Amino acid sequence: MARYHALFHLMDELTFATGPVRLGIDGTRMRTGLQSVLTKGLGMPVNVVAVASYADLLAQLAAGTVHLAWMSPGLGVHACDKLSATPLVSAVRAPGPEFYGTLFVRDDSPITTAEQVRGTHAGWVDPYSCSGYLFPRMALKARGFDLRGFFANQHMFGSHDAVCKAVESGAIEVGATYLNISPAAPSTRYSTSGWSSIRGSTMRPILRSEPIPSDMVVAHRRLPEELKAKATATFTAMRDDDDVVRIVRFIFGAERFEPIDIARYEIVRRALSM
């Protein structure tokens, strides 16, 4: 184990990884920009990658081939609890650090209530996705529904975009994704959602979860403390550069990062245990 620890001090490159988000050409370009920011801030080369799945992200962090990772709240809490990963910062989304999970349908769907979801074909993002799985299911349970046999069929799609496209195409009737609601807007309005990037789509939420703590950046437990401190400082300073803010918005859907208050994630731990 001591030799393993020493290797982290001797490495000449770090890997920062996200899940399968922003996989197109624009995403590649933005990751290259983020790579430059992190390399400068940490004082050593940083390779920024998007891995194929959330399971791959967790596995690579466990293996030590990923040193820093941007994770959903559910995956991040699991990594901290099971892999002793170190939570560094949380994302602050507009208009604030919390967002919601939602069950949603096409605007022309006859489904208008949570009760009417019973017997439908449903789509989820990932078992560790708070907005795309854990919190919408917790919201259903809070309304007294027994989820054993509740749905006619369920499928894991692996990403928010894939779930939203499946609902749009009619492949499934109900999907789960994220929702941000501006406190300055009427309660029926939302600022961003999982389907916002699908041009021309018309969706509506039918069930909203409790607020969800935002995504987090975690470090491998054996990453040297000085690098953890530099990473925290680099992420929190990203708000100070307009070009970098655009990268943060595009890749992470956030306005900035702030030092994490891990106590806020206890509700995520409860959702994982349900």
SSE layout and pairings?
Layout: H1 2-10, E1 14-18, H2 25-42, E2 46-50, H3 54-63, E3 68-71, H4 73-83, E4 86-92, E5 98-106, E6 121-124, H5 130-142, E7 153-156, H6 160-169, E8 174-180, E9 192-193, E10 203-213, E11 216-219, H7 225-236, H8 242-252, E12 256-259, H9 266-273
What would you note in describing this structure?
The protein is of the alpha/beta class and 274 residues long. Helices cover 37% and strands 24% of the residues. It has 2 domains: 140 residues, D-Maltodextrin-Binding Protein, domain 2; 116 residues, D-Maltodextrin-Binding Protein, domain 2 (3-Layer(aba) Sandwich). It contains 9 helices and 12 strands. The strands form 2 sheets. The chain has a 6-stranded mixed β-sheet, sandwiched between helices. The two termini are 34 Å apart. The N terminus is likely disordered.
CATH topology of the largest domain: D-Maltodextrin-Binding Protein, domain 2
**What's the CATH H-level superfamily name of the largest domain?**
Periplasmic binding protein-like II
Which CATH top level class of the largest domain fits?
Answer: Alpha Beta
Helix content: 25-40%
Low-confidence stretches: 1-6
Largest beta-sheet characterization: 6 strands, mixed
- Note the total helix count: 9
Distance between the termini: 34 Å
Radius of gyration: 19 Å
The class by helix and strand makeup works out as alpha/beta
